[in-house]
Design brief:
Blueprint (H helix, E strand, L loop, with lengths): L1 H11 L2 E5 L2 E4 H29 L7 H26 L8 H12 L3 H16 L7 E4 L2 E8 L3 E6 L4 E5 H6 L2 E3 L1 E2 L2 E10 L3 H14 L10 E8 L2 E10 L3 H21 L9
Antiparallel strand pairs: 1-2, 3-4, 3-7, 4-5, 5-6, 8-9, 9-11, 10-11
Length: 271
């Protein structure tokens, strides 16, 4: 048994390489890898605990909890990583040349990744969007499900998830339909009846739909008119995710069609 322990100690003390004036053995390398794995597990568990337990006890919304827990996660990773490097004998001054090469790499090959990372910080601090918001970005229509440091995840009405780079949120036009916890919806109908009757019919359809909120107040606008009819646009607000909003839009379309059929009218032809 003693000989086995001696052999094990000699194996762990085997020098592998020398860096920055320090000798690195198999034992120190294994200890560093184990410490790094433990750091990753701890940082992830801490982030989950802060988001779901600690911060959830206060009055913070989901987006703020996610931002605080994410920043804490990366701060712990950064401090822990530097501590592990110092513990195994690696000084940051040894990476001066490597840091210069890394900077060149960021300027070329890693430019987009670095830009998305900085954009993620901007999104988290400025909060142009929050978790649960219904947004439209570059043709993608969905609810914000997760805001990460590199990308933001949207959940569409079809149930699929779309990963959008954070840089797109900062550099492109983003339509945020969320207001006061509700989502604004606009729909257009080309009708051929009396203008006042068509306006009253559309408002009646909205009043009859339990999913349409009473506040903000529903409205009907005349977008265009000609000899064949008029183009009306309705604005209303709803609550719920993308699937629930799509169901309400479908119900409004169906109700308008049924009402026109009941009164013997039809949609106006396109000009």
């Amino acid at each position: 048994m003693t000989e086995l322990l001696t052999l094990l100690n000699e194996t762990l003390d085997t020098r592998l390489f020398r860096l920055g004036g320090s000798d690195f053995t198999l034992g120190s390398l294994l200890a560093g890898l184990i410490a790094l794995a433990a750091l990753l597990v701890f940082a992830r568990a801490l982030r989950r605990w802060m988001s779901q337990r600690l911060l959830a006890r206060g009055h913070l919304d989901a987006s703020t909890r996610e931002t605080v827990s994410a920043l804490t996660h990366y701060i712990v990773l950064g401090i822990g990583f530097v501590t592990i490097l110092n513990a195994i004998g690696i000084q940051l001054s040894s990476f001066t040349v490597l840091a210069g090469a890394f900077g060149v790499g960021v300027g070329f090959g890693l430019q987009n990744i670095f830009s998305n990372f900085i954009s993620g910080l901007i999104v988290m601090f400025e909060r142009p969007i929050k978790i649960g918001d219904h947004i439209v970005l570059a043709g993608v229509d969905g609810d914000v499900a997760h805001i990460g440091m590199r990308a933001t995840t949207l959940r569409t009405a079809q149930g699929s998830f779309v990963v959008v780079p954070n840089q797109s949120i900062i550099t492109n036009n983003v339509t945020n339909w969320d207001q006061f916890g509700s989502s604004a919806i606009s729909m257009q109908f080309r009708l051929a009846g009396t203008l006042a009757d068509d306006q009253a019919m559309l408002l009646g359809v909205l009043d009859a739909n339990a999913g349409v909120l009473k506040m903000p107040e529903r409205s009907v606008y005349v977008v265009a008119t000609d000899h064949a009819g008029h183009l009306l646009e309705i604005h209303f607000s709803v609550r719920g995710d993308a699937v629930e909003r799509l169901a309400i839009v479908s119900a409004v379309n169906t109700a308008v069609s049924n009402e026109l059929t009941r009164t013997g009218r039809a949609f106006a032809p396109n000009p």
